[in-house]
Amino acid sequence: MTWSRHRLHTGDEFRAVTRGGVRSARSHVVVHLTLLTQGGEAPRVGFVVSKKIGNAVVRNRVTRRLREIIRPRLATMPPGSALVLRALPGIDEQPFAALRADVDTGLETAERKLARRTEGAR
Prior knowledge:
By secondary structure, this protein is of the alpha+beta class. Helices cover 42% and strands 19% of the residues.
């Protein structure tokens, strides 16, 4: 799978998701979710892993782990949706299964919040 069509590229795209969408926080990750367009675009994903997490090696490892957790979920996300995962300190010490559970529950909660928001706007 090529990630280029699923990536958020610009700071404006990241800001649109984090400021305009819904948020769901877990112990080591914050999930931001929104609908950017109502069309048939592929879901888009971005990762925010700051220097508070660790050095470049640690940050890249965290990003790879988050990418692998999200990869199977892309098929179930609605078209035109955009997701930002923001890592919190301590994420590098989480076992993979616990991190997957955090991301999954955060994403499910964000999807419910977004569905309520879009239903209320109709």
